[in-house]
Amino acid sequence: MIEIRHLCKSFGDKEVLKDISTVFENGKTNLIIGRSGSGKTVLIRNLVGLLTPTSGEILYDGRDFGSMTKKEKIMLRREMGMLFQSAALFDSMTVLQNVMFPLDMFSDKTARDRVRRARTCLDRVNLVDAENKYPGEISGGMQKRVAIARAIALNPKYLFCDEPNSGLDPKTSLVIDDLLHGITQEFNITTIINTHDMNSVMGIGENIIFIHEGRKEWQGHSSEIMESPNENLTDFIFASDLLKNMRKAVLEKRNIGNTAI
What we know:
Shape: globular
Largest sheet: 6 strands, mixed
Mean pLDDT: 89
Number of domains: 2
Structural class: alpha/beta
Number of strands: 10
CATH architecture of the largest domain: 3-Layer(aba) Sandwich
CATH superfamily of the largest domain: P-loop containing nucleotide triphosphate hydrolases
Helix content: 40-55%
Low-confidence stretches: none
Strand content: 15-25%
CATH class of the largest domain: Alpha Beta
C-alpha cells in the first residue's frame, strides 16, 4: 500500500500538485486519470523519487519516503517495478537479456537461477518462444509484454506504469490490461497506472483517482464512474457525443427502473 498525505509540488510560482491525499491499495489496479497537464506525470515522478515534493508525505507500507536515508531509498527502489510509455528495451540485447538486466544488476542469485527467473517471467507474459529474438524483430505489443516481464523480474511490491497502452491497437491494449490486472492480483502488488485509455478505466479500474488542475477531484471504482456528479470528470470521460448519449441512456434506464419499484 502507498499512502500520500497532503502532497504538494511547485515549480517556482507554479503549483502543480495541490494538497493531494489518497491511498493506492495493494492487490488492486490503481489508475490515475486526468487531462494532459493535470499533474498525473508529476504525481508519479514524486512517488518514485524522481521529484521531491514541496510538502506532504509519501508512505510505502508505513515507511516515510521523505525521511529515508539514501541507502534506504536505494533499497526501496529495488522493490519497485517500472513500465514506461515506450517499452524502453535495449535494442542490442535479446528478449531474454532484457528481462535479465535488472536481475544482473541487483540480484545475488546464480547465473542459472537468474536465467530461470527471467524465463519464468517471460512464460507469465506468454513469450518464452521469443527469448532469443531482438526487440526490432517483435511487434510493439510483444515489446510491451517483454517490458512487463522485466518489470516483475525482481518480484516488486510496487509497480508503476506510465501509459502502458500508448501506441497499441485496442485488442493488444486489452491483452496488456489483462496481464497487468492478473499479475497485480496474483502477486498482491500495489500497481499504479497513469492512463488516458478509457477502455482500461472501465475494464480494470478498481481504484481510480481523477486529477484536475493539480487536485484530486474524485476517487472510486469503475462501476461508479458513470454516475459521478463531478462535472470535470464527466467532461473528461464523456468527451464525445456518442459517450455522452450512452451515459444519458444508462441514467435514464436506471431512473425508469427506480420509478417502477
